[in-house]
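Session log. Operator J.P. requested a structure for one protein chain; no other inputs attached. Running the standard single-chain path with token output.
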Amino acid sequence: MAWTTPRTWTTGELMTASIMNSAIRDDLSYLKTSPAFDGNISGTGTGANTLGAGGSGAQSTLNINGSSASGSGPYVGFQSAGTPKGYVGLKSGIVGGSSNDLAVYAIASGAWEFYTNAALQWGIDNAGNFTVGSANHICDSVGTPTIASQVGGSAVTIAGIDYAFTVNFGLTAPSSVTVGFGHTFNTAPVPALAVSTGMTGTILVTSVSTTQLVLNTSGAGADTILYVLCRGY
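Structure written below.
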């Protein structure tokens, strides 16, 4: 049974069984049987709330149209019991502004997790750290490291983030430097060191924990720069 375009009635028209069956009975029967979805959802208009999709055969597409005004980019929201939990869409609609970058946004304490075959592989926790594995161990921490302490020598400075930073020595190297991580790793990270010219000896890792890195820096020369990578697992 096929859909028939609804009839346009005229004043004084004789209502017959044939007309009623075609215009009313058959179309209601068609709607009641829930016709198979053919991969097409159609919408009209070009306003901010227009939803349109189209597809043929094995391919379907879904397009969400938004206004071109600043802060009006389209997005999809996800809720739990009516409480917003996250959004995916254009940055302008989620956080404001006019950027058309695609944004993935978790609310408050939410995190983003990436699965393959039902196994958690990677994630981003609510502090912005990259995590790895089902235990959500911090892999790349975005905390800000600090010089927790030093023994002797000129003032030492540090720049960067927990997983990639530089330690800059002054005219006189201290015998040791303790770097405090901005975030606590789940397991002690693995550090890798490289240095600029000016070394008089060797810089060694004395110890490393989830919260700090202790270095024997007696081998650093004047204005030596130490490059450090620290990755958790």
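Operator note: The domain at 146-231 is CATH 2.60.40 (Immunoglobulin-like).
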